[in-house]
Specification:
4 copies of one chain form a homotetramer. Chain A has 332 residues and is an alpha/beta fold. Chain A has helices at 26-36, 86-98, 162-171, 221-232, 300-304; strands at residues 13-23, 40-44, 48-52, 62-66, 75-83, 103-106, 114-118, 124-128, 151-159, 175-182, 185-192, 200-204, 209-216, 239-245, 252-257, 263-268, 281-284, 307-309. Chains A and B meet through loops of A and loops of B.
Amino acid sequence: MLPPVDLRPPFGISRSSHARLCVTDLARSRDFYTSILGLVVTEEDADACYLRGLEEACHHSLVLQRSGEGGEGGTARRIGFRVLFEEDLDVAYRYFADQGLPAAWADAPYQGRTLHVSDPIGTSLELCATMETRPRLHIDFDLHKGASAQRLDHFQVLTPDTYGLCAFYSALGFRNSEYLEHGEELLGAFMYRKGTCLDLAIVHGSGPRLHHFAYWLPDGARVSQLCDILAGAYETDRIERGPGRHGITNAYFLYLRDPDGHRIELYTSDYLSVDPDFEPIRWNLHDSRRQALWGGHAPKSWFLEGSLVEAFDGGWVKVEESELQGLPAYVR
Amino acid sequence: MLPPVDLRPPFGISRSSHARLCVTDLARSRDFYTSILGLVVTEEDADACYLRGLEEACHHSLVLQRSGEGGEGGTARRIGFRVLFEEDLDVAYRYFADQGLPAAWADAPYQGRTLHVSDPIGTSLELCATMETRPRLHIDFDLHKGASAQRLDHFQVLTPDTYGLCAFYSALGFRNSEYLEHGEELLGAFMYRKGTCLDLAIVHGSGPRLHHFAYWLPDGARVSQLCDILAGAYETDRIERGPGRHGITNAYFLYLRDPDGHRIELYTSDYLSVDPDFEPIRWNLHDSRRQALWGGHAPKSWFLEGSLVEAFDGGWVKVEESELQGLPAYVR
Amino acid sequence: MLPPVDLRPPFGISRSSHARLCVTDLARSRDFYTSILGLVVTEEDADACYLRGLEEACHHSLVLQRSGEGGEGGTARRIGFRVLFEEDLDVAYRYFADQGLPAAWADAPYQGRTLHVSDPIGTSLELCATMETRPRLHIDFDLHKGASAQRLDHFQVLTPDTYGLCAFYSALGFRNSEYLEHGEELLGAFMYRKGTCLDLAIVHGSGPRLHHFAYWLPDGARVSQLCDILAGAYETDRIERGPGRHGITNAYFLYLRDPDGHRIELYTSDYLSVDPDFEPIRWNLHDSRRQALWGGHAPKSWFLEGSLVEAFDGGWVKVEESELQGLPAYVR
Amino acid sequence: MLPPVDLRPPFGISRSSHARLCVTDLARSRDFYTSILGLVVTEEDADACYLRGLEEACHHSLVLQRSGEGGEGGTARRIGFRVLFEEDLDVAYRYFADQGLPAAWADAPYQGRTLHVSDPIGTSLELCATMETRPRLHIDFDLHKGASAQRLDHFQVLTPDTYGLCAFYSALGFRNSEYLEHGEELLGAFMYRKGTCLDLAIVHGSGPRLHHFAYWLPDGARVSQLCDILAGAYETDRIERGPGRHGITNAYFLYLRDPDGHRIELYTSDYLSVDPDFEPIRWNLHDSRRQALWGGHAPKSWFLEGSLVEAFDGGWVKVEESELQGLPAYVR
């Protein structure tokens, strides 16, 4: 059973928008994201690199931040969402504060007024209504490189309490395109605001952790071309899984790990979900088609690993272990 | 200059949803849309055929209606939009009535409460909040045929008063992803509600007429495959233009004419446009890249022809001629 | 070290041409090869089905033969090669007979004069100069189904004596495009006559067995489309390996097992090899790129299983075990 | 009616191999062929640039030579074929000399012994058996650029005497995959040696002229990607025709003109033609499918223009006008 969705939520998140990641070696990560994924550098300095996809008018969808001492590389600072109106931010501030959740105004370069909050499991979120814009580069095809990644599409987070977190985001107006149940237990909620399949996937696992963030590719042909480019560059160790297709959301995917181990899904193919009157698609835990529509296996690392997330007041959120034992049959 | 957009419109249209077309030979048109486009028949009887795209959960996105006496084949009955909530329909009724525009409740099978209205140039519209649903067939790949058309995406209408019609839809919350100007004169407005590039393209020309409706293809590979299938079937007379790419919206397109001459755009590639803070892309009339990014020419028929639209009280809306003379350089 | 190639061989084999397979259930196998691979039935009767690829003018490239009593399903009757001239057949007859290898004239429907022979490890071969022809169907795109398999491309056989078998075919003018060595030991010879990368791959393993036969796909897009079609039909158990790319020959591949377990490679991408003055590409056993250019693993079944081959005088050739122990690192 | 083919020709041409073109601005042409087509520079100096395709082991398939005074840019110096054996060159020398055709030994860097000859209409040919080799770069995908052109595939020449020239090459063992007739008159002969559809297309027109040379692309996806890259670089003036598909040979094509006006066909899709026992496909002049399987038109320039060819003793071969009047219906 899915929790009820508030179709007129208190404030309006419009889409998943940007990720801030800690990286150990800024130059190396910059090279990975520009030459392999094909992201474009909008701005950079000694400590941070702001990147956007080829179709994106927003200043950045990925911010790489040089990690300081203490092995923070491979951790996720925060994930960002856009709201439609400035006043949504004020409503959001009160909403989180009223629930006893952390909320504070923050200063974020190239963005409008920015609110930092945490969801109930401790994922650090960043909300803003506006961002500086830059020209879209989608038809500057001669500048496209690597996978020609077009835009940030969604995040996937892991938590031992899938239902609880799904209920929290349902109250914020996130609807489910699809979901995964085992008996009565909700194990995966594939939630969206922007009218496609996903802005936030919530999947059962030890958490809170960021399982992956996803960029959209312009075409199926880019998936195998990306594999080829990685092979030519002797970089196929970056490929963790795929190419393959998920039954859930129809994603034709390839999963990479960046130099710090952050996981990126490159994918194409989904569907529109604007109308509220359709039934979310229900998947059963034992139906391997949800994960691997073409058959085959997922590696254990894909199932078990994820990036730690930064705590609201610094440091990293302690991971609560999942009580579920064993691995699905498609994991090897 | 673009007219101002009401970002908090009086009622909420969520997307372009469905088209109702008159066809002379129902069986012939049904065959065209199922075997060539790959649409699926949800329901049909002697007088009408209800079709949907492979990813669509809604009951229909295209309704073919057998035309009666009098040569109505090749005319468009009406174009449909969805609103998010039932009460939007009531607000919409008053909104149109208050402006002296036609508005009446209608009975439309398989749809919820349905409102018929006309826009200021006489295009017949149909609004509803709900429709019966059916399972999406997007991963039933063994059933896919022809172009594997996924979903209705948008309409393009022709009018001699582009600015006026753009202003009308701007007041309903339609935003522009891109637009075409010649000096100060607005000649094309590419408007959307659902967060992609288009729900309604308004282009200068004698009107009101329906220039085309568009279905989304899953992949660039399908464009050339569709050409091949049409060639194998000795049906390339159906191809009016393409394959090619529009600079506007980045659409990789193929235009077909159905057995009654209705024009369909099959296309893939666009971009997301959820954020309200980017500048719409402005194109100049003399920049041929907007229409034909790869160069080449458009046939005169593509530039000059379109489907008549049904008047609110029956019969067909009289076409007002455009005062502009001459053809753009890319038309031959 | 590769054995010397006779560039002016005693008789001229021009290409790998056709396979004859035993199948348990003729109707079921026919359905697999026509609806999944997209082969076309040229002729059929109660005991045999003659199929060809979409571009093939030859009467058949695959003959399915209903197996009799005794569990012959899943065995390969023989593999066929074409010679350019009738007199090549006579020279071939003497050549095999002079070497003490089996050779006999046979009656093969739809083929010209046909010679049955065995190579030194017992693989049953069939040679002919002519075959009835039928129109190529390559541009009848409206008839194409499934993977749209275009043509038979090559065979791969397993033998414990790679060097010996490679030497035998080198004397018949087969050249190597690529080869695999471990130290001084030849473990794989990728041999051709027709000017592409392959007509016959000889790979180390318990043998003689037929590892697979391969059909060429028209395009990379067909590989993922075939996966999708199999998924839609709940037939992904047929997928044994892939999609992936071999470094050897550059094949973008998918391996299927037919209802009797025969292995088929569907692939696209190779290169021309007409000139005799280039060096074959040498691969080292420990370079996983030869097998899996994109990384990932091959299943044990792909490495270990193959079809038994019919003996010259009936029954099945006894398999000689390979003395090599262990599995390469990319096999799991 | 086609002239008879000598299946055991006096000497063995194995394939079309390389082209030598005059160019006005060597740096500009080098940039076009490397960044747009994706060819690789094997060697270059102030007067010549030697290029090869990504899969080619031969030293060069295209030689750009800086033209001297007198407006030679846009002319074709000669087209090259490979023979299999050194002694073929000696036989060829005598064969041409015996027929009173020009023949002389030449010095050609990076090639083995090289023979210069002219065919009966004056096309300058270059024959050699060997060439220096370089590593194939087909799996060095990270180095691929632009169209990723893989290999030179064929030439198309124009002549007013199609039958005569076809007869000449038929005597050298070139077979027809397809041909074009109007009544009894042969207007196009699509001839090959290497077992695919084409090495030399002979088409009716004022001549001798080189209509185009063709490079093979790895995949259909590259055709539209090449259009995109040209659009991004504001270079679509280079596109003369396409994308489209020829019924003849099934080529999915794009025709470009280089900075000097030389025409290049970039294409993928053909078929194998090794067996001598199939019937060449006959096309009728009035069947537009042969030229434009998807419908549409060819521009006049494509029909009427071509590169002059160098005469054996220098200067340019005088063009003999075709006596045929009018343009086919598909030309505009």
